[in-house]
Amino acid sequence: MEEYAREPCPWRIVDDCGGAFTMGAIGGGVFHAIKGFRNAPVGIQHRLRGSVNAMRIRAPQVGGSFAMWGSLFSTIDCGLVQLRGKEDPWNSISSGALTGAMLAARSGPLAMVGSAMMGGILLALIEGVGILFTRHTAQQFRNAPPFLEDPSQLPRKEGSRAPGYPSSQPYH
Questions:
Q1: Are 15 and 75 in contact (CB under 8 A)?
Q2: Is residue 155 packed enough to be buried (19+ CB in 10 Å), middle (13-18) or exposed (0-12)?
Q3: How far apart are CA 127 and CA 147, in angstroms?
Q4: How far apart are CA 79 and CA 95, in angstroms?
Q5: What pLDDT, on the 0 to 100 scale, is given for residue 154?
Q6: Contact, 105 vs 83, CB < 8 A?
Q7: pTM to 2 decimal places
Q8: Is 90 exposed, middle or buried (0-12, 13-18, 19+ CB in 10 A)?
Q9: Where are the domains of the chain?
Q10: Residues 120, 100: contact at Cβ < 8 Å?
Q11: 161 alpha carbon, distance to own chain's centre
């Protein structure tokens, strides 16, 4: 089974920023299309126009917010990998906490602490589920024990006994 290899650090930031923008734009588009449909005046023409209009205006904004989060997270993650010299789940957890704190910095220290805790907890849950999933799927690909043939069918040397059968010789 081939492992998923991530991009090296400078390109990882661009890759994660683009992926986060795409995810935010698609998710925000769906969310705001439904919201625009529900909040539009009665009539299918009005509702469809309201849906498309809300999606057109708000989806890129949500995508941009996701892109900002993704690029800041990746930048901090790459910095921690460089600083610590290893890539492990603690980097992601710390990056989530620091990203949450930095994005809430304009709201004050209390909001920074709350956002840092939420970012760290969220990333800890994601990393924990990833580790559990990896362990669970790794068990499926373990090598099976070698197939043992019926011991009575194996050729025996003179004076030896087949496994599992008592010997006619007394024990010393």
A1: no
A2: exposed
A3: 37
A4: 9
A5: 60
A6: no
A7: 0.71
A8: middle
A9: 1-86
A10: yes
A11: 54
Given this model, what pLDDT does residue 2 score? 44
Q: For CA atoms 134, 91, 12, 86, give the dihedral sign.
A: negative
What's the token pair of residue 17?
């920023």
Backbone angles phi, psi at 154, to 5 degrees: -75, 140
End-to-end Cα spacing for the chain: 50
Low pLDDT (below 70) residues in the chain: 1-5, 144-172
Residues ≥6 apart with Cβ < 8 Å to 95:
73, 74, 76, 77, 80, 123
Inter-axis angle of helices 89-103 and 109-140, to 10 degrees? 150
Tell me the C-alpha distance between 27 and 89, whole Å.
Answer: 26
Measured distance CA(106)–CA(93) in Å, rounded: 22
Q: C-alpha 46: how far from its chain's center?
A: 40
CB count in 10 Å sphere of residue 120? 20
Residue 114 identity: G
Whole-angstrom distance, CA of residue 30 vs CA of residue 48: 13
Task: For 35-51, write each residue's pLDDT tens digit.
Answer: 999 998 999 999 999 99
